[in-house]
Design goal:
Layout lengths: L2 H23 L2 H49 L1
Helix pairs in contact: 1-2
Length: 77
């Protein structure tokens, strides 16, 4: 998913949740606290997903390198 699309989806989710909190509680203070909490959670989730994709790419690259080394050893035998 492109980064701009991801940002728009996250903004829509945040706005929808904040509207729901306001209509349920009628408290701006709760809306602000909820906005801060959700923003932090979304940033942590995004950072975690980036770390996961980097880890997965690194393990895939290692597996490909090992397979290439095994082939080169078997070719020389």
């Amino acid at each position: 998913m492109p980064f701009k699309s991801l940002c728009r989806v996250l903004q829509l989710v945040l706005c929808a949740d904040l509207l729901a909190v306001y209509f349920v509680s009628h408290s701006i203070r709760k809306v602000i606290i909820t906005a801060l909490g959700i923003s932090v959670l979304l940033q942590v989730a995004y950072f975690g997903s980036v770390l996961f994709f980097v880890w997965r790419a690194k393990s895939t690259r290692r597996a490909v390198e090992r397979a290439g080394q095994e082939r080169s050893y078997s070719d020389h035998s």
